[in-house]
Design goal:
Blueprint: H1 13-28, H2 31-36, E1 39-44, H3 52-66, E2 69-73, H4 76-82, E3 85-88, H5 115-127, E4 132-137, H6 139-151, E5 155-159, H7 175-196, E6 199-204, H8 211-220, E7 224-226, H9 234-247, E8 253-258, H10 264-275, E9 279-283, H11 295-313, E10 319-324, E11 327-332, H12 333-337, H13 345-355
Parallel strand pairs: 1-2, 1-4, 4-5, 5-10, 6-8, 6-9, 7-8
Antiparallel strand pairs: 2-3, 10-11
The structure holds 6-O-phosphono-beta-D-fructofuranose.
Length: about 350
Amino acid sequence: MTDTNNDPKTYSADELLKENENLQQSNTGSLSAMAEAKTVAVLTSGGDAPGMNAAIRSIVRAGLNTGYRMLGVRRGFHGLWRGDIIELNSRSVSEKLQRGGTFLMTARSLTFNSPEGVKQAYDMCKVFNIDALVIIGGDGSYHGALDLSRLGMPVICLPGTIDNDIACTDYTIGYDTAMNTAMEAIDKLRDTASSHERCSVIEVMGRHAGYIALNVGISCGAEVILIPEVEHDFNRDVIKRLLECRNSGKHHYIVVIAEGVGSAVEYAKRIEKMTGIESRATVLGYVQRGGSPTLRDRQMASLMGVQAIDCVKNNRLNRVVSYRGGQIVDMDIEEAMKMTKTISLEEYGDAKFIAI
Ligand code: F6P
């Protein structure tokens, strides 16, 4: 019903007290309401990613505000089959939005890879009367979710990984923060490479995917970018290119390689030996997985969390929440898992084109 009265509504002291009581109940969940409410559990799985906390917060608040009982599963799927599950209220997720990591903790569960492990996790969902399970994680976590859904456990997945390598989505939570962390580090490395006229070889994360390497390389003006998706010829693509850069007047060089390509230490040694350019290696490693999420990761995590609860509310179950064509959407998990995604070779070519 539309309120046609434009004056602000006034409340009596009694009405305000009652309103406050209702609010407190919805925040903590009264026992009688909890017995009837739908129960939604949330877990984070696989490698952590900045923004996972923002996603949990959003899911919990959106769930509570829809009238659900909210549970948090600690330590990913490992915690699920062990029943490591806690009740969450609105205050449990206060002060989490800006924090890196995941306060629910995460794990890479080997037990969950077996049919027995999946069945045990499914049984635990029944013990806790879980009606829907929201899983925030990467590709491996999506496979775990799919297994659970096939046993009859309704799931919703949110993409949480710094690698951006989930096929059904253009964006994953944590990707932006990781890239910004790497970019800031490489800017600093450039200062010292320039002072010493050296070649700085930087290994960024991405065992199977070069999204971080490609975009950080573009953003830092790397002379050479090596990614697992594109084969390279060391002499042609690294040595010849660095020598061309030197001949064009450059005095220092940035080489960005994804960890899936090889070791920065080895590359630096080979570059120095074959070009005579003094070279130093830096492995950025886990620093890329930590830290306070960027605006983009907080915003995407928050909006994706709301979409997850919207799926539960409207009975769109066994779905994955994705970012596609500039919009947050959801799609069937079976369909999503059949999708493939390829890195942009055009962008890879453009990066080369402007680096010399
Ligand atoms: O989170 C993704 C990722 O960082 C990959 O790039 C990397 O290969 C992997 O996780 C390593 O993570 P862990 O050592 O936790 O298995």
